[in-house]
Automatic annotation (TrEMBL):
InterPro entries linked to this entry: 4Fe4S_Fe-S-bd, 4Fe4S_Fe_S_CS
This protein's name: 4Fe-4S ferredoxin
Source taxon at top rank: Bacteria
Species annotation: Actinacidiphila acididurans
Entry keyword Ion transport: no
Any Pfam family the entry gives: Fer4_21
Composition-biased stretches (Low complexity): 1-13
Basic and acidic residues composition bias: residue spans: 18-31
Keywords: Iron, Iron-sulfur, Metal-binding
Residue span of region Disordered: 1-31
4Fe-4S ferredoxin-type domain residues: 31-60, 62-91
Amino acid sequence: MNDTASAAPSAPSGRAQRIAERTRGENWKKPPRRIETSECITCDTCLRSCPEEFGAIFDIGLDVVIIPELCSGCPACVLECPVDCIYLDEDWTPTGESVWNHIELTAGGAR
């Protein structure tokens, strides 16, 4: 019997798994970040500074948003934001279906 033929395909890991499951990393202790859209100048600096393994920041319509399920709470975006409009989101709510549909459409390519 060929071991490779009987091996099941591997499950997605990391960011792809969080997108598939729509959940935050189990070991993430910090709350996710959020962007205060009324203060944001839509420069996309935060989007470009978000580490690829998280890829939590998206342009959705005219707003730049952080998807809490993909955000580890690291300060990379905060350190780069020129207008200081990114805050901890202690009371985050799950991301809505329409946003997940956008993420799934863009997950294969560049953010």
